[in-house]
């Protein structure tokens, strides 16, 4: 993924309709006694288990489309979702990368309670970057990264969420989508700067070809780079533009579960990630939880950015922190079970 400020030309037309508040507070006939909402039992999120799922993915090696490691990991992800009780659809297609390379892409979709009309969509990309194009060692910039955080962490948290949902269903049907080919965008060493559409090829395919005709979800939440020791989640700009109410829902859940130190109230610039397309093309309001540092000096970064591991060979298990996985997992579980 990359940071990109929206240009005016790319923005869709958004019709802002003020909500109509129809009140009847002066009419005693319409007074409705407010019953306190019973406390909802939220299953525990096991951070050890999520960590193990990150490790399992990294053990395959880099998960770059058109490689055996990618195919093997796809099979494993499908088998885990089936094991947890999901109805699984694997969406296979050929998509074209920025340089014309044809990629064998697989979106892996796990549906829980598929007949339930009220649905929440959770998603993360599972492919890893084919290059370490931001690594300080220029001689290794064309080698693929392990993507423990950039791919592994979001998928690891969602697999643990899937395991819990399989044991104890929430009121809503849940769809978990592992999108492919998110991270095949134009590398920094290319002469061209590329386009937003070079990224997120799997989610763009899904938006044009949803796994079910007329698929709708009440809202979506994307996890990307959620498990590092340096995790910090400002309110992400693209999410705030399309779906500020879901951002606030998630950040309030983080406060309630004691994780407001990671989920801060600053707003970052707009980023290009799968949620851009899910919001803009599929029309499902979606928020992204992603590590981002607005104040780069505290991170030793040359400019605001995702963290010093980003698109480098440092994105390995050494930077993964169970407490970050726990913070995101517990926040997500709170949202799902209280909806
Ligand atoms: Zn990436």
Features:
alpha/beta, two-stranded antiparallel sheet, 339 residues, binds zinc ion, 7 helices
Structure summary:
The chain is an alpha/beta fold and 339 residues long. Helices cover 30% and strands 17% of the residues.
What does this structure look like?
With 339 residues, the protein is α/β, with parallel strands linked by helices. It contains 7 helices and 10 strands. It has helices spanning 47-59, 68-83, 148-167, 201-208, 237-256, 274-280, 322-338, and strands at 2-3, 87-96, 102-112, 119-125, 173-179, 219-224, 233-235, 263-267, 271-272, 286-290. The strands form 3 sheets. It has a 6-stranded mixed β-sheet with strand order 2-3-5-4-6-10, with helices on both faces. β2 and β3 (102-112) form a beta hairpin. Bound molecules: zinc ion (ZN). The site of zinc ion has 5 residues, from loops.
Question: How is the topology of this model organized?
Answer:
Elements: E1 2-3, H1 47-59, H2 68-83, E2 87-96, E3 102-112, E4 119-125, H3 148-167, E5 173-179, H4 201-208, E6 219-224, E7 233-235, H5 237-256, E8 263-267, E9 271-272, H6 274-280, E10 286-290, H7 322-338
Helix pairs in contact: 1-3, 1-7, 3-7, 4-6, 5-6, 5-7
The structure holds zinc ion.
Largest sheet properties: 6 strands, mixed
Q: What class would the helix/strand composition place it in?
A: alpha/beta
Helix content: 25-40%
Bound molecules: zinc ion
Number of extended strands = 10
What global shape is seen? globular
**N-to-C SSE string, H for helix and E for strand:** EHHEEEHEHEEHEEHEH
